[in-house]
Amino acid sequence: MFKIDALGKACPLPVIETKKALREHKVVQTVVDNEIATQNLKKMAKQLGYLYQMNQDAPSHYTVVISKGNTELTTEAPQVAEPVEAVDDYIVVVDTNVMGRGSDELGKNLLKGFIYSVAEQDVLPKKIIFYNGGVHSVAEGSDSLEDLKNMAEQGVEIYACGACLNFYELTAAVGEVTNMYRIVEMMRQAPKIVKP
User: Fold this and answer.
1) 3-class DSSP state for residue 23?
2) Which pLDDT score, from 0 to 100, does residue 78 have?
């Protein structure tokens, strides 16, 4: 059994680490410190058609075991979700430096988690386009810069609006600078667009 200590790790890290481990191991045990993480791990197990078991060891200590077969688990097998279509010709568009409305601090963390999650997908987007406040993600000092550079190395095309970079007095540290006309063309031609 492969063990992961995900205590103190925010969503989606426990799910991503567990999913990666399940590529090489039949049974993975993940320790987390919140119930939301256990629910997200359960959803992932259900989507993959794997067995799931959770024990609450203490108020902030949960042990989740996910198995590709019935090894070491006695829980009822989850229903298998419909397979996800692997479309490799989609683009991601980011138009803000926060995700959602409410707390900007939370929104920045959510956007960082979103970009990290995109980087960890089995099927990467063809392009990622940043405009307006989204261009902060491609500038030096961005929490997402390493994830974006890694995706660029894997062939993901990264574009940032030049007028937006100028407005915020930023320089792109990854990808290519483009204009709104080209951004509209890319969005119009994309079979699928994903936005945070």
Assistant:
1) coil
2) 38
